[in-house]
Amino acid sequence: MAEEERRPWTQNRRFEFIEWKLFWEGGLNRSDLESAFEISTPQASVDLRRYREIAGSNLEYDSTGRTFRPTPDMKPSFLKVSADRLLLQLRALLSGALPRREVWFRDLPRTDIAPDIVRHVDPDCLRRILDAIRAKRCVEVRYQSLTNSRTRLIAPHALAYDGYRWHVRAWACDRDDFRDFVLTRIDRIKPGPAADFDPADDFEWENFAKLDLRPHPGLTDEQSLAIQRDYAMKDGRREIDVRLSMAYYFIMRMNLDLSDLPPARAQICLSNIDEVRKAIEDAKASSKARILQRKGMPPAAADE
């Protein structure tokens, strides 16, 4: 058994904390470990001594400041350095999704986020949706669409987030097709019968499209270079794989369907948007044909 496998997970976690403090804050002391993990002074001393035995070249003791400092050639062994992860933690903290003690900054940097209109999902509704997905059962919901409010029987098989809202991907029993239902629009929910569908028939969910993103052609050369850097493009393009069922939301969220936006506001364009739209329509048609086939109905019935 490898040495790392023999160490308790909690100690590996504390070693990760040591490296986090060294990398992101430039130092730590024993009291940091004590307060973050609610451990005793002797245990914190053991952790520091053990870490120095394993990766002593990563830190050195500053007797003047009475703290450990990272060495210039520090190479984390327990911490996966990720700026994205750190910024997501700060965002989660500011939005209330993460408690203060789970963010390891001793002193938080001055941080703020633009206001977001929070859409709170009812916990009981989500619990029943998750139960239905696990058990492959239907649920009866009172659903408020943009046109009406009515009771519907749906068979959930997945959850999806479009960047603003959470949806449940489900078989709509009254329409014989797969659709997205916004979780916050579900008013009432109760268990239903066993689901009579195969999630594999949801071709929009099962298949992916490759989105070919480019800087908007109306940008100046300098603007184009800035956008390429923003979106981590290589050779003036970036390809992103996305489920067909999620492509619509990505296109809408990024305003890729609005050809009349000023270039500086649009920033990017989807060079293969027609191809992606066709793939979505083809997937819908394939799902419909497969469902009719399973029911023993002729393909022409799809148009009736």
TrEMBL record:
Residue ranges constituting the DNA-binding transcriptional repressor CapW C-terminal dimerisation domain according to the UniProt record: 209-276
A Pfam family per the record: WHD_BrxR
Domain of life of the source: Bacteria
PANTHER family: PROTEIN PAFB (PTHR34580:SF3), PTHR34580
Residues of the DNA-binding transcriptional repressor CapW winged helix-turn-helix domain: 11-91
InterPro entries associated with the record: CapW-like (IPR016634), CapW_CTD (IPR059020), CBASS_pafABC_assoc_protein (IPR051534), WHD_CapW (IPR059019), WYL_dom (IPR026881)
Official protein name in the record: WYL domain-containing protein
Organism of derivation: Xanthobacter autotrophicus
PROSITE patterns in alphabetical order: WYL
Domain WYL: 125-190
